[in-house]
Amino acid sequence: MMRASTWATRWIWAFVSLVLLLFSAPLVSADAVPVAGERPVITEIAYEDGVLVVAATLPVGTVRATLEYREAPEVGAWLPLVVEHLEGGVTSVQFRVPLEGRSPAAVFRVRASFSEALPASFFSGKTTYEGVEGEGLLPSVGGPWRDDDTTDGGVVPGEENREVVESDIGRIQGDLVYFFNQNRGLQVLDVADPDLPQMVSTLSAPAMGEQMYVMPGGEAVLLTRGGTCAWYSTESQSELLVVDVSHPNAEVLARVPVPGWIQESRLVGSVLYVATSVYRQVEVWEPQVDGETGDGTVSDGEEGAVSVVWESGTVLTAIDLAEPGKPILRGELWFAGSGNVVQATNRFFFIAIYDVDNWNSMRVEIVDISDPAGVMFRHGHVRAAGRIPDKFKMSQAGSILTVISEAWDEASRWVTTLETFDIDLPIMAGPLPPEYPRLGVLRLAEGEQLHATRFDGERVYIVTFERVDPLWVVSLADPARPKIVGELEVPGWSTYIEPLGDRLVSVGIDNEDGWRVAVSLFDVADPAMPALIKRVSLGDQNSWSEATFDEKAFSVLPEEGLILIPYQGWNGSEYVNRVQLIDLELSPGALQARGVIEHDLAARRSTVHRDRILSISSVEFLSVDASDRDHPIVVAAVPLSWPADRIVLTDTAFVLAMERGDYGWYGHPAGARVHVLAQDDPDRVLSTTSVSGPPLVGAHYAEGLLYTIQAPLEQRWVEVDGEWVVEPTVVVFSIWDAGALPELVLLGSTKLETTLFGWGLWADFFWVQPGVLVAGFAGGNRYGPWVDWVGGVRDFAMPYWSGGSQGHLLAWDVQSPDQPMLVSEVRLEDGSTDVWWGSSGRFFQHLQRIYAGRSVSVYTEPDPATAEIGRWTTRYYLTVVDYTVPEAPAEWDPVEIDGNLVGVANGGELLFTHGQNWDETGQYAEHLTAAAFDGVGAHLIDRLALPLTWPHPMEFSAEGVVFLGRAPEGEDTNPTLESYVVSLDGRFSRVASLPLEQPVEAIANTGSLLVTMARGNQFGFYEPLAALPGLGVGSLTACVWAEPGQGVGDPERGFWLPLGVYGAVRIPVAAP
To answer: Mean pLDDT lowest for which of 49-53, 947-951, 1057-1061?
Structure first.
């Protein structure tokens, strides 16, 4: 009792001293217009049962009175504690404040405001909200550049000599290297002097496909996913592009739409055949069953109904490219069922399609393509015993089609079956193309899986695997009686075989000591006695190679006595990407590993041209002098792509692209970098500056200076005294001179040892005072330490997910660019031990205040007594951090809000939150809430029910305009872009509604541009005003999921988007 009494006395003395302070300091808000000389005065202070009562008189005209406090008399920002919204004429007020949790040294004052940013009625709504409950678990918040890329189908002897060519990502024609780069699009390099390669033409088309042909006249033919990028939907449409590469900016000469999504293709002569998978609607007549007699008989067909059903199928399209700039569509054929395995000769096109009634078997549709102009005819089909895994399992020799398949037998074992069919056998005419009967059959390798196969004249080589790799040699001399003539068992298995006369070269897996890519040389001069001559295994214990599933990455060059194969894997503690050089000697027979070519990323293709090895990956082109094969030397390198994780606009003619610097196995390991780009060309890099240290996680430009922040992207747990704790990490803050771009010069940097929770962080920046820049991390998923979940063996346990960080703010004094200093650090954590999950959303700013939303989920244990199940309850809060004093930022008391904070407007007093709930019937619903924030409470103004249809993205303006995309809600409705404001009567009011062709999938506001993105990466640009005045449209030629919220731009400079490994793109704001 004595302690409580003494504490209360100290509080009272603080107020006594406060009264003197009030008479010497202005107590009206800066935007108020008080009566001259009038100010609020505290007239009485009382202490009643743990509650402090403060009475004050107010100037005439006061509409809001706020009791504020700070923790110490002379330090820190004044924080709101209690707010009273008053009717006109009120000149006195009484505040009641619980003392618990307040510092005894705190001082208080009263602020009077004479105007409200929002109508007074907005502050009468409730300030407590229902949490969202959920049950159970956590809440879910063959050489590529050879001119003989033909397959086993090939050219049938005696037929017209029309070459059969497969697509590839790379091709050399003359001295031009064509590369269909997944990261960028089409890139063409001149290698007439391979020591001085030059990029001569480009076409931006990242992630659009990897099938390319080069025509005799030099035109590139690209098979792309099409403008809609609508994978696996009923609206999917691919597109063929014919591209003129004679100019630096390659020109699309022609476009041909192709239905569905592309599976495979072949160029036969001048006709391109493309197989695509398609869904289509068909009408089916369903006769009515006679229900009167009950005997189930069918009526005479006059009664019934037409129903619409969806069916999957494969479409074969023929496109005549005799004049590449004027392609002609010659026809389309539909086949029920889906399949992605094709083979072709100059007479037939074969498509292996899954049987819709038996997914354990396939049929091979045979199409007559003997007409050089591209006219197609159905020739019939055959039925295989099982699944046909790849193109090397089908081959035509004369009239005989041989098919190799695998299936489960009655004993649930794999079995490989070789079947032959005479597809020129006369068949009785009928209304449908015939099914050809089987001529011969051979079953082998029961209980083993089928791997590599290769036809070579009257032989076929077959590799199966269970514990060892049997290489089977099968004779097809008598197609009616195929027979095994030889067998060899070796460890591992082959995935591709290259026949070279009496020798076979294969690539596959060596599983004797780990899992390593292996190249093998076999002697098959005596088919009855095949022998392994030599095997070369790559890497230490584990390695991988694209060549094991795409033979085009495997370059076998007998004329050079050389094999080139890319691989990647661990070399000790270092992860490497290499091209291995292997000497190939066919007679008497030898393989010898030589040197390697080091790449930053996995090499895709390599070959020899003009005495140089040309090796290419998605990020670089290398020209290599291998005159000493043990020590190949890179003599020239051309960058092909680089990642862009954020774009920073400047007030100059330059744009800065930030490369984070840590992409794991899938990106560029060069470390963090800043690329200076030309304002009109995102692929034109004027300079690149490496940023040493951790990955780049934030960048900001202002008045000729670039500010960057670096931090590890993952948290590291260490065990200290038997407990797991997060290891402190180093954060680096730097300032760069960007006043003379493209040159970038480091001025100063400083390091901070702290702990950043979460993965995938990127900082937002806020100027809270002149010379004070705050970097805010809005949190991310957080993981706990390794837990002994699996047999008590930590090495095989997984780290558990323990929620998310609620935010982290770092304030830096940047007044001296050569000596930046950290002035304060704020963690938005509540310290609760029973909170399992929480994350902050976006940060918002008003003057010196930063607004952060967070969600907190608490688990209630099951109650056996009441049979109540365990539940999660999620509640949402707003925290305001006041940087009036940057060295001692003050956190306002958390305020409960109605959902995730998604917008702040009207000087920080209008909040928008996005919430969800389930009604009494269990129906899920979402709503947008507008609330009036007075510093101590978020008063409900109105709720707007959001559409149940998806998508329905939202964005907001600082002036309080809500932008909402609405998807069609029925067959007779159109998608719309809508705008809303909160009207003076406290209701959401729709201001504009624009009909659109496609639903909006994302909305962003750059400040001067409102950006919408619809399906197929179609963009719309508007002024960010309620009337939605249009500025233009644009499109992104890339099949990637763009994030408009990461974009920057304005009507003059266009909209710039970072696409990660796919680089940066600029979308001009073109008039519609």
So the answer is: 49-53
Q: Which residues of 970-1004 are buried (b: 16+ CB within 10 A; e: fewer)?
A: eeeeebbbbbbbbeeebebeeebebebebbbbbbb
Which residues are bridge partners to 730 per DSSP? Answer: 753
The span from the CA of 274 to the CA of 232, in Å, is 17
Residue type, 363: R
pLDDT, tens digit, 9 for 90 and up, residues 848-890: 999 998 888 777 777 777 666 767 778 899 999 999 999 999 9
For residues 1059 and 204, give the distance between their C-alpha atoms in angstroms, rounded to a whole number.
13
Q: How far is CA 677 from the centre of its chain?
A: 23
- 482 near 455, Cβ under 8 Å? no
The tokens 């007439």 sit on which residue? 192
DSSP 780-800: -EEEEEE---STT-GGG--EE
Tokens of 491: 């460890």
| Phi, psi dihedral angles at 878 (to 5 degrees) | -110, 130
Residue 114, SS3? coil
Residue 274 CA from chain centroid, whole number: 28
Residue count (the chain): 1072
Instruction: Identify whether 588 is preceded by a cis peptide bond (ω within 30 of 0).
Output: yes
pLDDT in tens, 582-593: 999 999 999 999
Computed over its alpha carbons, how large is the radius of gyration of the chain? 36
Contact present, 913 and 923 (Cβ < 8 Å): no
Distance CA 827, CA 809 (A): 6
Give dist(CA 869, CA 920) in Å, integer. 18
Whether residue 336 contacts residue 265, with contact meaning beta carbons closer than 8 Å, is answered with: no
Tens-digit pLDDT profile for residues 491-532: 899 999 999 999 999 999 998 888 999 999 999 999 999 999
With tokens 């020739």, the residue in question is: 379
Asked whether the bond before 975 is cis by omega within 30 degrees of 0, the reply is no
The label of the residue with tokens 């702990």 reads 755
In the numeric block, the tokens 């949490």 are attached to: 131
Position 9 confidence tier, pLDDT thresholds 50, 70, 90: very low
Q: Across-strand partners of 278?
A: 313
Please, what is the average pLDDT of the chain?
85
Q: Residue 168, Cβ neighbours under 10 Å: how many? A: 25
Assess contact for 916 and 924: CB atoms under 8 A: yes
Three-state DSSP class for 392?
A: helix
pLDDT for 612 equals 98
Tokens standing for 460? 């076929």
Do residues 1048 and 217 touch, judged by C-beta distance below 8 A? no
**Residue 20: pLDDT over 50:** no
Give the DSSP H/E element, type plus range, for residue 1005.
strand 1000-1005
Cα separation, 388 vs 404, in Å, equals 7
User: Largest Cα–Cα distance of the chain, in whole Å?
Assistant: 115
179's tokens: 């590369």
- Indicate the residue type of 372: P
Amino acid at site 617: S
- What's the pLDDT band for 429 if we cut at 50, 70, 90? low
**What angle is formed at CA 76 by the lines to CA 44 and CA 848, rounded to 5 degrees?**
110
pLDDT tens for each residue of 298-339? 445 556 777 778 888 999 999 999 999 999 999 999 999 888
Give Cβ neighbours of residue 448 (< 8 Å, ≥ 6 apart).
Answer: 414, 416, 464, 465, 466, 470
CB 544 within 8 A of CB 568: yes
Question: If you write DSSP's letter for every residue of 1006-1060 in order, what string do you get?
Answer: -SS-EEEEETTTEEEEE-SSTT--EEEEEE--S-S---GGG-EEETTTEEEEE-B
Q: Where are the alpha helices (DSSP H) in 384-505?
A: none
Q: What letter does residue 209 receive in the DSSP assignment?
A: -
